[in-house]
Amino acid sequence: MAFTEETTHLVMNHVEHCEDGGGLAVAGWTPSGSCTLSVHDDPAPETPPPHPLSATEDDADEPRPRPSGRYVLAAHRAGERDGLCRELSRAPAAKVTYRVAGWVGLQGAGAADGCCHAVRVEVCTDDGRPVGGGVVVAEAGKWGEIMGSFRVDDDEPPRCAKVFVHGPPAGVDLKVMDLQVFAVNKIARLRHLRKKTDKVRKRDVVLKLGRRTGGTAIRVVQVENSFPIGACINKTAIQNPAFVDFFTKHFDWAVLENELKWYYTEAVQGQVSYSDADELIAFCDRHGKPVRGHCIFWAVENVVQPWVRALNGDQLRAAVEGRLRSLVTRYGGRFPHYEVNNEMLHGAFFQQRLGDDINARMFRETAQMDPSPALFVNDYNVESANDPNATPERYVELVTDLQKRGAAVGGIGVQGHVTHPVGDVICDALDRLAVTGLPVWITELDVSAADEAVRADDLEIVLREAFAHPAVEGIMLWGFMQGNMWRSHAHLVDADGKLNEAGHRYVGLRQEWTSHARGQVDGSGHFKFRGFHGKYVVQLTTGAGEMKHQQFDVGKGDGPLVLDMDL
């Protein structure tokens, strides 16, 4: 590409670091609120090492630069909104996703060793409207990396934009080093992900068919990918033939949107009904779709039904036990996954009333009643780097605590309700979750953008990052059809059944991730191809015109899969 005045914003840093007489980057920064700014140099900044599961410089699209050690300090802060501010050197373009990168730190009398505070990097347009940024939970004495993003979704770009850095309480000094704002290089990321996907999801296959078959026409068809992609369904949606048609053709698994939740099955104490859940499960059985169990409990207080909130401690404990017995024994062996207590990073309703062990007890008792399903944690914002309550590190701490208490945690659910996603931010979060050794599922994916082309790009970003990551074992979309979506501007299929641009992109990716091969058996009686993991059928046409078939599976493995075919 030949860069012009109009396209230079795609490669430049929008925070220009000018030099003062002492050689330190400071020009352009101004105090925001009550604080004073000064410039300093850290000759050996202590930053976290590259994550062990992150891409190496040999295969990453853009290796992370080393921190310079030069930083601006905001001291004498009087409140959480006090900090640093500067105008971007160039206004962001409309509908372009930008990455916010750099390092932040804490010091001063209010930042004792080991204490942690959320630092917020916020980008606002000229009218004061926030359009994104990022959040870092920084530890005093160490540098924390910013993994933020933003986008202006208006048709017209703003005249200007400013970046603010603030967040810690009064008395904590705030440091900012090497802040950068730049447009995401989607082309380079796509090239990297295709290479990574080929390595993670595909394998060389050698079919041994015998010398007598040399020269025979052969065709290999993939009939199932081992990486499932599913969607949520509800009682209303399955009455729509267009919904059913798209769901049955393009999704592998299902999850009930609300019909299995406690507030739905027992809205009034003692009046328990699973009729709607049973109807949906029967629908999935007819179409051969496995169903995830969502969810046994929900930890966020405002979604707990009023009669449960009114119970005292002993009554609540008895109600929890009753819910477990009622649901888990009824569907014993029925679900491959359960989400046991939804959104524990954002709610603690049961823990606050029944003690710290109640979450692990829910897992233990579920496993005792039904040992077959994998038991998942499930939460939101973990992949977005914008929520101090839902950092990957805090999610890992939650899982570790549950395991120490005897909970058989079998998987990590990352919901994926995303806005202006950035690939390397998502990948970084998945890398940090992968250290648990547990499978990760994207459990409630939707991307919201009024512009359908932008929505299609956003959806592709998340799908490709998840599919290319070795820790991820499946994806569930939280709806796909207009009128049956929890979020607006997130559908793939219009109300009349027509695919929009996001829908076409999704179908195209599913086709891209399906392997077919055809040709002739070589003189040694072998046929070689490289295909995605999953189930296949080989079709061999003999010299007499007879068609022979055989099924086989391609699983994970470093070396070629060699199969003796009995045809």
From TrEMBL:
Family to which the UniProt record says this protein belongs: Belongs to the glycosyl hydrolase 10 (cellulase F) family.
Organism: Oryza sativa subsp. indica
Active-site residues from the entry: 444 (nucleophile)
Protein name from the UniProt record: GH10 domain-containing protein
Pfam family, one: Glyco_hydro_10
Keywords: Carbohydrate metabolism, Glycosidase, Hydrolase, Polysaccharide degradation
PROSITE patterns referenced in this protein's UniProt entry, alphabetically: GH10_1 (PS00591), GH10_2 (PS51760)
GH10 domain mapped to chain residues: 217-509
Any one biological process term the GO annotation gives: polysaccharide catabolic process
GO MF term (any one): endo-1,4-beta-xylanase activity
Residue numbers spanned by region Disordered: 36-68
Highest taxon above the source species: Eukaryota
